[in-house]
Design goal:
The chain is built from 10 helices and 10 strands. By secondary structure, it is an alpha/beta fold. The longest helix is centred in the last third of the chain and has 18 residues, at about 175-190. The protein binds adenosine-5'-triphosphate (ATP) and magnesium ion. Magnesium ion binds near residues 48, 49, 91 and 166.
């Protein structure tokens, strides 16, 4: 259930990030409250992945602040940021192809330690029974949908407070996309997990999200509830027309 008084979990203020001397984020503001699903949508090259990576410290924010529970993490090392309870399923999944499913999940648990490993593994296998069936198969030989499940499962093994997903639906068949989105919804509803969802699939993302942001060219141009954004003509024209 959503808390009556939202508690700020992550806030991004005026963040600028560069690749060399090319500016990719031009002063981004965004907040995520505990227990929310927040979607970030935008066209190719808008800077969505860059924002997620910048929250993780690579590339660094050159200006602005990134606060996780009031603490400025903008200058922290990526593994220290992860230790605070942020986890991501990165764009393109980036599972370890030569390692088995089980070993990939072990890697995800490196941060939370061994104490809860068995319970956390069982939880991931309950969420994604397919991963249990495939636990000794090498990651690189999994289907795209299975790799996505593994990337999310690996992130969950660290017991995150904030789960960040970069384009989990990319390249997957509609049925698998639905499964993945149903899992995200269930984790949020049943466990109160906070989710930051980067998606090009604007329809699914905004339908699922409590709130959404639209990024254009390194800047947030629109924000609102998922429902509001879905109804806006400029969103429909730019991101939803021609079917979802
Ligand atoms: N490692 C990099 N080096 C140089 N430029 C980069 C790098 N990564 C991204 N960029 C540039 O930064 C801009 C934002 O890219 P980013 O990957 O964040 O966009 P995106 O919104 O995630 O796009 P997509 O929907 O295609 O994944 C683009 O112009 C891209 O070319
Ligand atoms: Mg991207």
């Amino acid at each position: 259930m959503k808390a009556a008084l939202p508690k700020l979990l992550l806030s991004v203020h005026g963040v600028k990030a560069f690749y060399g001397n090319i500016i990719a984020l031009k002063g981004v503001d965004l907040t995520i409250n505990e227990g929310e699903i927040v979607a970030l949508i935008g066209a190719n090259g808008a800077g969505k992945t860059t924002l997620m990576m910048t929250i993780f410290g690579n590339p660094r924010a050159q200006e602005g602040a990134i606060l996780f529970e009031q603490r400025d993490i903008a200058a922290m090392k990526t593994h220290d940021i992860a230790r605070l309870g942020l986890a991501q399923s990165p764009e393109g999944r980036r599972i370890f192809p030569r390692m088995t499913v089980y070993e990939n999940l072990q890697m995800g648990a490196a941060i939370s330690g061994q104490a809860h490993f068995a319970a956390d593994l069982e939880r991931v296998f309950t969420i994604f029974p397919r991963l249990k069936e495939r636990s000794s198969q090498r990651g690189g030989t999994l289907s795209g949908g299975e790799q996505q499940m593994l990337a999310i499962g690996r992130a969950l093994m660290s017991r995150p407070r904030l789960l960040m997903l970069d384009e989990p639906s990319l390249g997957l068949a509609p049925l698998i996309v639905k499964q993945i989105f149903d899992v995200i919804a269930a984790l949020n509803k049943e466990e109160g997990l906070t989710v930051f969802l980067v998606e090009q699939n604007a329809y699914h993302a905004l339908k699922l999200a409590d709130r959404g942001y639209v990024m254009v060219n390194g800047l947030i141009t629109l924000s609102g509830s998922g429902r509001e954004l879905l109804a806006r003509p400029e969103i429909r024209a730019a991101y939803l027309e021609g079917g979802h």
